[in-house]
Amino acid sequence: SMPSEMLLKIFSYLDAGSLLSVGCVNKRFYDLANDNGIWLKLCCKSLQPKWAIQKMKSEQTEAVSLGCAALHDEKPGYWKKEYIFKQISAFNTRVMRLVKLLDPYTGLPCKNKEAMKVYGLNWTIVLKDKNGKEHVMEKPKLSFRNTSVTILWYGTGWPCLDNLSTLKLFGVTPLLSDQSRPPTKNGPRRFSLIAEYHLANLTESSVAVGADELVQLFSLNSGLIVGIWKEKNGIAFIMASLHFNQLLERSILGSAAVQYAPPPNKPFLDDIDPEYGLHDYSLRLDLHGRSCMYLCGTFKGLFCRKDDIENGYLRLTAVCLTDNRKHLPIIGTFGICWETDVFKGKIKDCFMMDLTLLDETGKPFWCFSAPVCMELSSKASGLYDCMGHIYTAEYADSEGKVCLEFVWLEETKEYVMVSLVLYVSTKKINSWYGTNY
């Protein structure tokens, strides 16, 4: 029963976050909280655009902003959208400026972790069942590596797998970030869609990574793993491994319905020629099991001659079987660690692979973080200093393939990586450089 004029006066004392929350009470509050006069006042006070500084004195800001003709020319909510858009753009600029400093070994930003903390970035899983009901899974457990972050969700309230239709992975940030105070738990938030998966026939259509006595691991694309209980055929946990190269962009620059699409690469004009091939590429390879590191290696000066182009792929050899100077020992035995509220385990003979391939300018060219399983090869190593069974591991996506070989040394109970070869798709090369290999 309170008059709208009195409510508008009360609302004029609220900050932006409180106004957005008030607008969720009912339709009347929503219409009043969209008042252009209130939001124009917030724009002048917080963002201080140049035209406002020039035309308005501090003591006249409220009177002029509430009474200017522009309020009547724009539709209700116009200045609210302008305020939110400019706040988000300004904060994105500050955060992106924070990650400009690059690590010379990885070619990736040094302060990704700090930028995520400043931004208040988190990740959420949304499971939708066949009736359209959504189940939101928050509060993940994070594990930071050199070039990626592993995100683990687990709990006792997972819905039945047979009733689920889709899985969506979102990056979540406060809609209006304020560095002077932490984000409120129930405040307005932005969702950026990172990946979406259809869960129909999950166990049949997904790649089986491995299993132990309790769970089976199934790999979806974009580095996401679903752990299924063997006995109940229900979800035990969900794990995502995201590479730092596209982490922030995919987590903050997309929308709730559309994934972020990176801009096309602007090629560096040098002596790139199909007759000459690729040259001076660098590779950073990390093999880990979420909570433990097995291998961390950097390989520089990778190149590809014309003769190495075959069947639509260019071959880059980082570790050669016959060159024992580049063979690398593995720390511990391979396995992906998992946990829930009650149980913990380790899936043997598989690992998470973080790959960062840099072009000749040091720009990330091909990056991913994904689970890989290894298999016993039928052949045995004949190397004099590396006798034993050979294990192979492969990864492939639309941009290329990675092939690894390990030898198990029974005497020392350790693996040694004896071969690492990358096959880069010519389509990827052509789109990157604008050439025709």
From TrEMBL:
Gene3D superfamilies (UniProt xref): 1.20.1280.50
Highest taxon of the lineage: Eukaryota
SMART domains tied to this protein: FBOX
InterPro entries linked: F-box-like_dom_sf, F-box_dom
CDD domains: F-box_FBXO15
Ranges of residues in domain F-box: 1-42
Pfam family, one: F-box-like
A single cellular component GO annotation: SCF ubiquitin ligase complex
UniProt xrefs under PROSITE patterns: FBOX
Name used for this protein in its record: FBX15 protein
Organism, as annotated: Grantiella picta
